[in-house]
Protein 1
Amino acid sequence: MISFPAFGAGIPENKGKRTRVEKGRIYMEEIGQIFPHFVWINSHFATRDIKVNDVLLTSGRLLPEHTRLVLVIERRGIFDDGY
């Protein structure tokens, strides 16, 4: 599932099997797309919580304003030290 506050540049209007608007946000479920990474320009107004599989990673308000950011999720081995 992806969610965002409004349609704009780079936001598809026809993704997902279920699209709904709830409390001012647009939600698209079952989009059938894998993102090897996600790139965006952070906005304290638009970027709220950043979650992966319902796990909160951070809040957009804690990240640099008007900055190009890249989110990459990597699977790590059991003996990786996390760095």
Protein 2
Amino acid sequence: MLEQVTLSSNGIILEPLTLAHATDLIKACQDGELWKINVTSVPEPDKVIDYINIADSMPDRQAFAVIDERTGKAIGSTSFHDILPASKRLEIGYTWYAKSYWRTHVNTTCKLMLLTYVFETLEYQTVGWRTDIDNHRSQQAIERLGAKKDGVIRGNRVRRDGVVSSTVMYSLLKSEWPQVKIELINKLNQSP
């Protein structure tokens, strides 16, 4: 639905996710055994190829590999999804990074690149996020970006452990973007 694009800033590259990233992503998801966290979309190491193939087959998803420019290795993934060109809305999700990159500049850098592209190049009006109701870490990260909590969709998803759970929805409007952009840049300038 969207043109394939590669974005780069602050030592991080976002490039279209392909099977060429599989070996790196297997190592990335093993960093912290992330697939064991029931409230995330991180694949099990032996399911990374399936994860990439599924992402590639979804017509309303554009998946990216997150590359650490210093090493040239993929350290995680993120996606545009639920892309609605008519209403100029999409969501950012399926986001995960190797645990050693948590609480670094990586997430802020990725979101700044993605949001700049969505609002300033594509001229979309709304970006959304969703996360499991029990994924408080993700909720805090989304709120730190400046997104507003829209509400909770109750009982709409099944976690990998089979538990039916609820989803917390967030959004950011194009009119809110200029202030959020300033805040994200300031956060990056304060990062070590």
